[in-house]
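pinging the channel bc i need a second pair of eyes. not urgent but kinda urgent?? the chain im working w is below, pasted from the shared doc
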Amino acid sequence: MGVMARNLWRVTEPFHQLAYRSPEAVAAYETIGLKVGPHQYFASRLAAAGEVTHGVAVALLFGFAPDYVAQAIPEVWNIVDAKTVVKTRTQGADATLRRILGDAWNSSEIERANSIAQEMIAQISFSGKPFAAAQNDIPQPDTAGLQLWRACTILREYRGDAHWAATAAAGVDAIECHILHAADGAMPEDLLQRVTGWQDSHWEEAKERLRTRGLLQNSDAKLALTVAGEEVKLFIERSTDSGSSSPVLAVGDKQTTELTQLMKPWIVAIMDADVIGAWKMREQLWRDLPEEKNV
């Protein structure tokens, strides 16, 4: 089940990311007055939940520095209302995917993938999944392609909600999670700090906390996990898989595999188009869909 849940994430995450980072998305946000990166990202990410306050935004986003979130929230709601942002986000995604996928955007394969994804969503509970629930409340678009894109966002946020719940349950806070991620070799430390907006002093204090807890090796040269740190990371990943497995259970392994295989060429096309910024660094994770032992 863990393999299936992770493979589902691998094909939904790139669809989710392009709605914030593609040229078409950025241009669309600029037309409604969102001229700077934090305004575009945080407004588009949060708009499904409504015009939330700063405190609610920080809680939903979990891993971002509160001061960084404050560069956009709540100020951005004085520029544009949440419903307009939701509509614009959909328009940006539509334009991006039409360009990248071409004829495939209106194919029978898209319709089949959408059918499976919709069945998943119809059968799962959103209790304890606030971001996914907010996306599920967005009106269903008219076309199968946009319906699939919306479904991918819901399923991605469903796993994201599960991941942050698992992270908190492991006693890891909103900054420590990124340091453990960097120490695990997933993404460069400087990139993770930059995109999440944490100040140097807070970052160093968090590293020291992790060393004191025995999760991070005592070295200034390169971040590395201890055995205990590896166990914590494994706990978080297994718990995330468990907490996001309901969509797989809803349709079964066979249809989940069919969905991921149908989507694989489209993920390759998104990667080749280079529209998701720094997140392309995870390309092998998404492109290969590796077989893994179900632990």
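so The two ends are 9 Å apart (CA to CA). and Residues 2-169+238-279 form one domain. — does that match what u expected or am i reading it wrong
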